[in-house]
């Protein structure tokens, strides 16, 4: 587990100092996931989600640090108390809620399948027959691929890092990738991604859940309610929109 160096200086907003924890460790994937988060040259996390997380900590009057954890180990890290909350684009699903609790959502964007512009893949199971589909491991996108495409596809290839499957798609080692539509933005706008496009948006509420929230250990209701109040506060006072407008030209909060 890699501990990111930045410690946030938090202003007292919305909660009394007496309720503050000594330090709240916010966990996210140690691999880059722009525009949500990535490490800069100093090893500090930057991006929309880290700015939102910083704003939530300010609203909670908590001193926070960011901690990078391999994605497939992030829930175990939370349960082992190596981190205090997951603020790293984790979807709120019924399956995950068997193990952990969640705050209210703080954003919601659709999943998508991308492939070469010349490909006849259209998002239907039939269109991936004989194809190799890439997806990041331990994600709702992997669950969707296994439930929807695995029986028709030639094979499903899983990756630890979101960006690794984009590179394999560019190299022609796989035929399509399933992931968050917004997370594909940087790749599709790059020189490497110029010949690829989103073929279809994908929806399945049972698999994808109702948006992204902060993952909290069960029984830590006080922290969960602090996150909920902070989300409401930054939405109401304009902080959420001010941060989001630096990254997006639409409402990432979703319906």
Polypeptide structure, described:
- The radius of gyration is 18 Å and the shape is globular.
- The protein has eight helices and 13 strands.
- Helix 1 crosses helix 7.
- Strand 9, helix 3 and strand 10 (155-159) form a beta-alpha-beta unit.
- The longest helix has 16 residues, at 221-236.
- Helices cover 27% and strands 25% of the residues.
List the helices and strands and how they pair.
Elements: E1 2-7, E2 24-29, E3 38-39, E4 45-46, H1 48-60, E5 64-69, H2 74-79, E6 85-86, E7 101-107, E8 111-116, E9 132-136, H3 140-148, E10 155-159, H4 162-171, E11 176-180, H5 185-188, E12 196-202, H6 205-208, E13 212-216, H7 221-236, H8 239-244
Parallel strand pairs: 2-5, 2-6, 9-10, 9-11
Antiparallel strand pairs: 1-5, 3-4, 7-13, 8-11, 8-12
Helix pairs in contact: 1-7
